[in-house]
Amino acid sequence: MAGSPDFDSDSIMNDETSQWRWLGYPESRMVMNYGSPIVARYDGKMSLNIAMAVKGFRTINSVHQILMGPRTGEAVEYMDLETAWYPYKLTADAVYTEGKLHMDEFFADKDTFIRMIEVSEAADAKLQMKATINGVSKNGNDLLVEREDFWFVYKILKLNEAGEVIGQYEPQVSGDKWSVEITFDSDSAKLAFSLTMLPKNVADNSADSAQELADKTLAEGTNLNIVLADTKQFWDQTLAKIPAPQNFGVEGNKKNGNITSEDHRRAFYAA
Fold first, then answer.
1. 128 in a domain, yes or no?
2. Partners of residue 125 on adjacent β-strands
3. Distance from the CA of 25 to the CA of which of 32, 91, 113, 164 falls in 20 to 30 A?
4. What does the alpha-carbon distance between residue 174 and residue 195 come to, in Å, rounded to a whole number?
């Protein structure tokens, strides 16, 4: 079997109710939204759950949550949500009592994960990001999380219309809780949350090197749309090399039914 030189990751998008929600990256120690489609489905806060390979296997849940609502009222959970899975990203379109958002989630590389958000109908709305996690502290406008076996660095990024990093929002920390509330000057705006992780059981890693890596990956002027396009190109090229059947689809029987060529192809590459 030969590969598919013109493979396009968008061709195996899955927006069915039973869609996969996990996302990984080669050599990364993190898998986002791990578990079965039912387990990995977003809660009302679109909580980010992570499985990690750091001195064994562990999970850490609700490291980032999103709420939205009226500018002068309470930020609440979404009313309606549509999601889709791609090999290189997850997407979500959420509707709130005030405002809407579209989110693309993707790996910039093996160490950094990004949630890029575009709000709409938001002139009278506010967006809140928050979470509770042991070991969190402020480092300038960044958040540093130090745990027994790893470090996280969070950034809440301001983006211009093109998707370029133009600054940061400043989160507040109280004990193990952090949060940031963002209001908007117009109906639409772009922003992002990033998480960079380094393990402690690797020589030369430190809190400083985790911060330096996050600063380099998300430096001012970085265009996150280009980062996403590069991630897609990486997956297109990687999946294009996989030997694939010439014909997809499986004929079943009266009991089991058939598997369509589309479902077969999508599951083949997802595996």
1. yes
2. 70
3. 164
4. 20
The pLDDT of residue 255 is 60
The count of structural domains within the chain is 1
**Element counts in the chain: helices (H) and strands (E):** 4, 16
Residue 196 covered by a domain: yes
Question: Which residues span the domain enclosing 55?
Answer: 9-223
Contact 66, 46 (CB under 8 A): yes
> What are the pLDDT digits (tens) for 135-158?
999 999 999 999 999 999 999 999
Amino acid at the residue 190: K
30-32 sheet: strands from edge to edge: 30-32, 50-53, 57-60
What amino acid is encoded at 126 in this protein?
K
Predicted confidence at residue 108, as pLDDT, reads 98
**pTM (2 d.p.):** 0.93
Residue 102 pLDDT > 90, yes or no? yes
